[in-house]
Amino acid sequence: MISCHQKTPDPSASDEVHDSSLPDWSKDKSILEINIGKYTPEGTFASFQKEIPRLKESGAGILKFTLIHESDTGDTDNPEKHPYSINDFKSLNSHYGSPEDFKNLVETIHDHGMYLILEWQAAHTSKNHEWTRTHPEYYIIEAEGNHSPSANAYSMEVPAINYTEVKVQDAMTEAMLYWVTNFGIDGFDCIDAELVSINFWTKVRKALNQSKQILMVAEGAHPTLYDAFDITYSKDISELQLAVSNGKIASDLLDSVVVEEQELYPNDYCRMRYLFIQDHHNEDSGSMDALLGPGHEAMAVFLYTAPGIPLIYAGQEALIGRRSFLLDQDNRQGGEYEIAGFYSVLNYLKKENQSLWNGIHGGEYRKLEVSTFPEVLCFSRMKDDNIVITILNLSDRKVYYNYTDAMEGTKRFFGNEDNNTEIGSAIEMEAWGYQVFIK
């Protein structure tokens, strides 16, 4: 079920293995993805800085900025049209503000007890990058002498970097260190990580670790990524959630993937969970309501209580749920947040229950059989004396589940926490209903 087929170049096993345990500061936090150009009407670092206190109140712990570098604009004047085609890895998009503005923003984020990671595209550059003129050896060159295009769906034939060249490894390492040492950022979310040699990633991870305790996220699923990264993308779960919401597959396949992950990955693995298909290849895939319908809250509860670290897109709490930063700029966030409180509650749930913490810091996962209805998914997480039981009705019809002895002595998290239900009682659950029991 888990897709981790090799891409070119092959991320073969590295010569030295990094301890991929999550940084301690990330153990109980979720990730909130921010597009600076879209989050506020002004689309600047300075305007976003004013939002930090509110985001802190919502329980946001780790902010992830989508690419903030100067990018190749192609035939358009819109600097966000092709943000994954970078002109200069040490640059900032001037529309967002100055280096001083960015540094002030990072300091404000840290002052509020939050952390910042940046998206990073190391697989290719734009055709206008200085390296294409000064260091042609940094690129993969085809037999006819042209740049080899990067092997992804949205690259538009941008030139792929040649990581067999030691000098380009050093240059890219220097560029990543620049953001850590000069601005104090806390990590990177590396796009198309499987297109880059794992030997490079272990090398850069070692260099970054000498500066501070860094969080490294990889867009990919191959187990060897954990030689250098703390977290990998869980695109398969995202796709399954969409299929379950549309009634195309049974809910127990979500459990099957979690079990498969436990067998495939190292003991301290952590996967980044996110709702629906909202990746770099599906920028305009629609709103959360359009994709998940009334099931989006139940799916979010799964996101927060299953093993892994949750990723929430800015605007998801406002039922916008679009990741359209490759497209127009008509969908700036701002204004009222319709169900922001729901995600604040989920952030609180995660932080206050060690069983739900990220990676090796969290609790054991076990599926529980509590219903004859196949739409019901129930599982427990247990760490020391903390037990969390999640029950989800992943369907559009009413179902029943049995109150079992595993739930004895627990309190309900949603609704009235008093729990005087007798063991063996049949409990009705509405369409797309959910409940969490805590001991």
Characteristic terms for this protein:
439 residues; alpha/beta; TIM Barrel; Immunoglobulin-like; eight-stranded parallel beta barrel; five-stranded antiparallel sheet; 15 strands; GH13_cat_dom; Glycosyl hydrolase family 13 catalytic domain-containing protein
Description:
This protein is α/β, with parallel strands linked by helices and 439 residues long. The protein has two domains: 24-362, TIM Barrel (Alpha-Beta Barrel); 367-438, Sandwich (Immunoglobulin-like). Helices cover 26% and strands 16% of the residues. It has twelve helices and 15 strands. The strands form three sheets. Strands 1-2-3-4-5-6-7-8 form an eight-stranded parallel β-barrel. A hairpin with an 8-residue loop joins β9 and β10 (376-383). α11 (296-305) runs parallel beside α12 (340-352).
The CATH class of the largest domain, by name, is Alpha Beta
CATH superfamily membership of the largest domain: Glycosidases
User: In what order do the strands lie side by side in the largest sheet?
Assistant: 1-2-3-4-5-6-7-8
Which CATH architecture of the largest domain? Alpha-Beta Barrel
DSSP helix count?
Answer: 12
Binned, the helix content reads: 25-40%
Question: Which regions have little confidence, pLDDT < 50, spanning 5+ residues?
Answer: 5-18, 74-81, 277-288, 319-339
Structural class of the helices, strands and pairings?
Answer: alpha/beta
Shape: elongated
- What is the radius of gyration computed over CA atoms, rounded to a whole number of angstroms? 22 Å
From the structure provided, what is the oligomeric state, counting identical versus distinct chains?
single chain
